[in-house]
Design brief:
This protein is α+β, with helices and mostly antiparallel strands. It has eight helices and eleven strands. The chain has a four-stranded antiparallel β-sheet with strand order 8-6-7-9, with helices on both faces. Strands 1-2-3 form a three-stranded antiparallel β-sheet, with no helix packed on it. It has a two-stranded antiparallel ribbon with strand order 4-5. Strand 2 and strand 3 form a beta hairpin. It is rod-shaped and about 125 Å long.
């Protein structure tokens, strides 16, 4: 089989049933039979769309003739020409109108994004994503502070200005909710209503355990593992702490 063509009449046929019966009909899709050296009706469905341009596979204006993949309004089409038909079917609006609609949609998206970025909920989520919980030790009395920040270096500078020398024990991701949960977890060691806690052995053991598998900020001064173990050994146990009206007293009064 070769050379797809479309007949505009049936003069090439000697036995066209429709012509013999003098039944009018549109041009038929035919194919050239090399064995018979003559044209014959194409068997089965074929894509009847015409190619708009010429390349090495076909000439402009020739019938496609490929195996049909879709039937649109009773017309057999291959996927390529069916997709072209779909694009032409829905390309009814002038280009300028389509562009204006697209611009409006883009502007609406930008306004929505701006409103979202300016919302309190977005700021809270952004803050939570950047926030870390830090545990530091004040050198002057050994008290431990549990706090949160989104700028650790700046916060450490502020705390050193207020409390003198401090050492970072641990940092991990977390926002205000995580900080509150840590305050609640170690509430029996909390000094008044501050964020400072007595350096009880249980608290320091927990911090040391977390240091083993948390992402920590390697900032100086950073307490080494050996120094941390020495600190735990020297730390008071629960029974060694002093309390006043239900609140831990730190530093403890001299005996």
């Amino acid at each position: 089989m070769a050379d797809w063509e479309a007949s505009r009449s049936c003069k090439v046929f000697d036995n066209c049933v429709q012509c013999l019966h003098r039944v009018p009909h549109p041009p038929l899709l035919v194919e050239y039979d090399q064995a018979k050296r003559n044209y014959a009706l194409a068997e089965g469905g074929r894509c009847v769309a015409r190619w708009a341009s010429t390349n090495h596979d076909h000439a402009a204006g020739s019938i496609c003739g490929a195996e049909p993949d879709k039937t649109v309004a009773g017309i057999d089409l291959c996927n390529h020409h069916a997709d072209l038909l779909t694009k032409w079917r829905y390309f009814e609006e002038p280009e300028e109108r389509v562009r204006r609609k697209t611009d409006k949609l883009r502007e609406a998206d930008l306004e929505y994004e701006k409103a979202l970025n300016e919302s309190d909920a977005h700021r809270e989520r952004l803050h939570a994503a950047r926030s870390i919980v830090y545990y530091i030790r004040r050198t002057s009395d050994g008290a431990v502070k549990i706090g949160t920040t989104t700028r650790l270096a700046t916060r450490m500078t502020q705390l050193r200005a207020e409390h003198g020398e401090i050492t970072i024990l641990l940092t991990h991701s977390g926002a205000a909710e995580k900080e509150r949960s840590m305050h609640l977890k170690f509430r029996q060691y909390r000094i008044g209503r501050s964020e400072w806690f007595a350096p009880a052995r249980e608290l320091l053991r927990w911090i040391d355990g977390e240091r083993g598998h948390c992402n920590v900020a390697q900032m100086r001064p950073w307490m080494s593992r050996g120094d941390m173990r020495k600190l735990i050994t020297a730390a008071p146990e629960d029974r060694g702490l002093q309390y006043h009206r239900g609140t831990v007293r730190w530093p403890p009064l001299a005996a």
